[in-house]
Amino acid sequence: MKKSNIISFIVLACLIALPVNGLALPISGDGRLGSFTGSIDYSGGDEGAKLRISLTNTSPEKSGLYLAGFYFSNTAIAAAQMETSGNFELVQSSGSFDVRALYRPTSDTLINTTDVNTEQPMTFYFSLKGEKLAGLTAESFIKDFVVYFGANGTTVDKAPVSVSEPSTMLLLGFGLLVIGVGLRKKTQ
To answer: Structurally, how many domains does the chain consist of?
Structure first.
């Protein structure tokens, strides 16, 4: 009886860990030098959509790397507007969206390095327009998602996003359920 309760609890925990539409999708990534964690949250309808991307630079403190920007693409998005920019700008063309840290025109120095060199989460809000936005999910943004890291005014590394596969969690939960049923039959 106790084993089946434990197995049921583990299965339930695996199902809860699956990304659900409307909840922020946790993301992370490692490059040669830089690493990050964060989340992507998406809510959309046919008339427009909102995208929130939160990123935290988790590179080793002594590396001197700062978050220099990120890139994502999706052909369903016709246009995007970044609502909060700070020291970042959005460059877009035909479903490709590049967010880069701004530099002074006369030098390679960042306008305000404290805004990009922080280990605090940086959050970017976007308003999106397109024809098929209702069919998108947070998972649809991670296919080509890349985070850029910079040092001394130059991009020196990029880290692609990685996220645990929902199907892996589902298979794990199903496997544990089968084991639990098998154990229950043996004890009866």
So the answer is: 2
**60 and 148 fall within a common domain:** yes
Look up residue 11 and give its DSSP letter.
H
Q: Are residues 4 and 90 in the same domain?
A: no
Complete edge-to-edge strand list for the sheet that includes strand 66-73: 88-93, 96-101, 66-73, 146-151, 154-160
Q: Is 85 helix (H, G, I), strand (E, B) or coil?
A: coil
CA distance 151 to 128: 31
Residue 159 in tokens = 């880290």
User: How much is the pTM?
Assistant: 0.70
Which is more confident, 179 or 2? 179
142 contact partners, CB below 8 Å, separation of at least 6: 25, 27, 40, 72, 161, 163
For 120-174, write each residue's pLDDT tens digit. 788 999 999 888 888 888 888 888 899 998 887 788 888 888 765 555 666 777 7
CATH of the domain at 149: 2.60.40.1170
Q: Residue 165 in 3-state DSSP? A: coil
